[in-house]
């Protein structure tokens, strides 16, 4: 049985060269920075990693490199969602061969199906995959909302071990209540604004675009709230970070441009976003720089 994830998992950016090829040397430095900063796991090839503007071979190369660079220091989750169950299973099992522990899977979208169709989709993937399956509920992006009751049913499948909730907070609360007593199933938020509230009601972890830029601070937020039970200190830290939360989504959500610009400012390579995404505006970069200086960073 594959254990459920917990803690802070960074949805890694993908640095690109000027010709939009993947800069694997910069990618390794980003991964080293994250692991040295204390994150509990890496998500390679997720939405923040711009998988949706990559070929299948590029997605595979990113998963392989991410696992190699992590080198067992922290577990790896791979973005393996595809339009069909068959394709998803093939990519999930490729990720397993590379060393990934979990696979993040969106529901089928564009041509909407019934609830039975969604349930069958996830159950088939879970039964035939060699990684633990993490459900990605992101209705803003997919226009498909998985009901709390559906997630509860899926949580009882042996190889479905977690959900990444990027719906509203009320939805997350219902999912957490329904799945609280399910062995080996964890509930994550995928939204920065919901990190501290999620921890305070028993959620097991968080993803967040901001982790790419401020991993130490976000890991500390988790430690204060979950491990040390020091809610006052967690609230104080959350207040310091809150200025970044809106900036991460100021020019679109999901959109990795602002966090890539911030990563450039602290001396790593975030780089450009890949077309058809557009680059971060000078105005937003200025606001981001101001927030980093306020937090005590020297910026370029």
Automatic annotation (TrEMBL):
Gene source species: Clostridium formicaceticum
Active site: 136, 164
InterPro entries reported for this sequence: Aldolase_TIM, DapA, DapA-like
Name under which the protein is recorded: 4-hydroxy-tetrahydrodipicolinate synthase
Lineage summary: Bacteria, Bacillati, Bacillota, Clostridia, Eubacteriales
CDD domains: DHDPS-like
Residues annotated for pyruvate binding in this entry: 48
Alphabetically ordered keywords of this record: Amino-acid biosynthesis, Cytoplasm, Diaminopimelate biosynthesis, Lyase, Lysine biosynthesis, Schiff base
EC number(s) on file: 4.3.3.7
BP terms from Gene Ontology: diaminopimelate biosynthetic process; lysine biosynthetic process via diaminopimelate
Pathways per UniProt: Amino-acid biosynthesis; L-lysine biosynthesis via DAP pathway; (S)-tetrahydrodipicolinate from L-aspartate: step 3/4
Entry similarity comment: Belongs to the DapA family.
MF terms (GO), sorted A to Z: 4-hydroxy-tetrahydrodipicolinate synthase activity
Pfam families: DHDPS (PF00701)
The UniProt record lists the keyword Cytoplasm: yes
Its job: Catalyzes the condensation of (S)-aspartate-beta-semialdehyde [(S)-ASA] and pyruvate to 4-hydroxy-tetrahydrodipicolinate (HTPA).
Catalytic activity: L-aspartate 4-semialdehyde + pyruvate = (2S,4S)-4-hydroxy-2,3,4,5-tetrahydrodipicolinate + H2O + H(+)
């Amino acid at each position: 049985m594959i254990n459920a994830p917990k803690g802070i998992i960074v949805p890694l950016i993908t640095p690109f060269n000027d010709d939009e090829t993947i800069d694997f040397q910069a990618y390794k430095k980003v991964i080293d920075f994250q692991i040295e900063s204390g994150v509990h796991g890496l998500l390679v090839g997720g939405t923040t990693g711009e998988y949706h503007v990559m070929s299948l071979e590029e997605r595979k190369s990113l998963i392989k490199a991410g696992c190699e660079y992590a080198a067992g220091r922290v577990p790896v989750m791979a973005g393996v969602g595809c339009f069909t169950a068959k394709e998803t299973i093939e990519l999930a099992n490729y990720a397993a061969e590379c060393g990934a522990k979990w696979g993040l899977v969106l529901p089928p979208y564009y041509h909407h199906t019934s609830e039975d169709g969604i349930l069958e989709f996830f159950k088939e993937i879970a039964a035939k995959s060699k990684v633990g399956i993490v459900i990605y509920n992101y209705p803003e992006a997919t226009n498909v909302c998985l009901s709390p009751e559906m997630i509860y049913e899926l949580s009882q499948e042996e190889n479905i071990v977690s959900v990444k909730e990027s719906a509203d907070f009320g939805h997350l609360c219902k999912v957490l209540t329904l799945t609280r007593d399910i062995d080996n199933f964890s509930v994550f938020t995928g939204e920065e604004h919901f990190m501290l509230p999620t921890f305070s009601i028993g959620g097991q972890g968080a993803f967040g675009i901001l982790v790419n830029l401020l991993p130490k601070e976000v890991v500390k937020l988790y430690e204060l709230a979950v491990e040390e039970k020091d809610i006052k200190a967690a609230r104080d830290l959350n207040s310091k970070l809150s200025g970044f939360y809106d900036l991460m989504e100021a020019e679109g959500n999901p959109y990795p441009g602002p966090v890539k610009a911030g990563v450039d400012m602290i001396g790593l390579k975030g780089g450009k976003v890949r077309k058809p995404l557009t680059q971060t505006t000078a105005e937003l970069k200025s606001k981001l720089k101001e927030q980093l200086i306020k937090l005590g960073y020297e910026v370029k």
